[in-house]
Design brief:
This protein is α+β, with helices and mostly antiparallel strands and 403 residues long. It has 15 helices and 13 strands. A nine-stranded mixed beta sheet has the order 5-4-6-9-3-10-13-12-11, sandwiched between helices. Strands 1-2 form a two-stranded antiparallel sheet. Strand 12 and strand 13 form a beta hairpin. The N terminus is likely disordered.
Amino acid sequence: MLLCFQWLLMFGVFSVKRGYIMREVAVIGCGMTKFGELWKLSLRDIFVEAALKAIDDAKVDRVASMYVGSMTPGLFVGQEHIGALMADYLGMAHIPAVRIESACCSGGMAFRLGFFEVASGHSDVVLVGGVEKMTDGADVTYALATAADQEYEVYHGVTFPGLYAMIARAHMHAYGTTREQLALVSVKNHHNGSLNPNAQFPGEITVDQVIKATVVADPLTVLDSSPVSDGAACVILASMDVARKMKGQAVKVLGTGAATDTLALHARKDITKLEAVKRSAEAAYKMAGVKPADVSLAEVHDCFSIAEICIIEELGFVDKGKGGPFTEQGHTALTGKIPVNTSGGLKSKGHPVGATGVAQVVEIVEQLRGSAGKRQIENAKIGLTQNMGGSGASSVVHIFSNA
C-alpha cells in the first residue's frame, strides 16, 4: 500500500496538503453570462446559460454533483431550493445539488466545497456555479443588509455603504490614504472593464468624475461603489487524471483558504484590518506552497474602492497602510507589479453577489490559459482570487497555476 501511494504521489495524481493526502484538482471548463440588468432572463435562465457554456468548454457530458453559490434568491426573486431547481432546468435532475450561502462570498465558498469533493476522491467531475438576480424589483438595500449584524448595525440604520465609509475614514486617518487614491481604484478597474465584453459598465471614468459623483456615504460616492447586477458564472472541476486529457485547457487549483471575523464592525479592534482576509490568504498560501510575491495577478472583492486597498494589504502584496500609494503608483494596473482585478472587478464588471466568487475564478482561468484578450497579463503563471462576505466577516481565497 505504501509503495502504491508513493507511486501516485510521484506521478502527480495525489498530493499532500495540510497533512492529508488529496487528489490534485483542476478547472477544465468555465462559462459566464454578461453581467448587467438582464430583464428578459430569469434566475434559472442565466444559470443554465453559464452552466452550458462551462460544460461545452470542458467537453464533458455529465457531472457527478453541483454546488450553487447564491446569497439570497428568496428575497431577490422569492425562490429558494435552487440547488434542485438548477439541476432540473439543466437537465440533470437526479444528481446531488445544493445551494451554498455565505453572503457575497457564496460563490467562492461553493467553489471551495466543490474542490474538496473532487480532491477527496468522491467525485471525478463537479459543476460549481454562482448566480444572482438582483434587479427584479426587490428591496436590494434590505436584502444586502441581511449580511450585516441586524441587532447592532441594521436596526440603527447603517448599511454597507456606511460601514465601508467608516473603514475608509479610519484608513485615511490612520495611514494618510487620500481621496484621490480611493478614486484611482475605480478608475483602474473601469479601464480594465472596458476591455471585458462581459462587463456591466465598460466605460472609462476619471478621478474627478469619481470624487464629484453623488455621495452615498461620505467619503464614498456612487462611483466608488459596485453596482446592482444580474448574472451567473460556472466552472467544471475535475481530478487531474481527467484534466490531463484537456490538451492545455486545464488550470490547476493549488490551494484554498477560508476564515471568518466578527459580523459587526464595531466588535473589531481595528476596523482598517480585514482579519478574515489575512487568515484565509495565509491558509491558501500554505496549502499552495507559494508566497504573495509569487502571484502573477489577483481578482479581489472591490465592493467599494476602500475594500480593494485594504484587501491588497491583507493579502501581503503591500505593507499595511501602503495600499493607497501602491495603487497610485500604478502597481495594481495591467502593466504593474501585481495586476489586480483585470476583469474590471466588482466595480466595472458588476456584482451579482452569489456569482462574483465564481466569476473571479473564470477570469483567472482565462488569464492562465492566455485567452483574456486585450487585458491579458504577459507570462501569467499563478493567479489568486479573494471573495468576501459582508464587511469582511467571511473571506475565501483560492490559488491557481497554469502548470
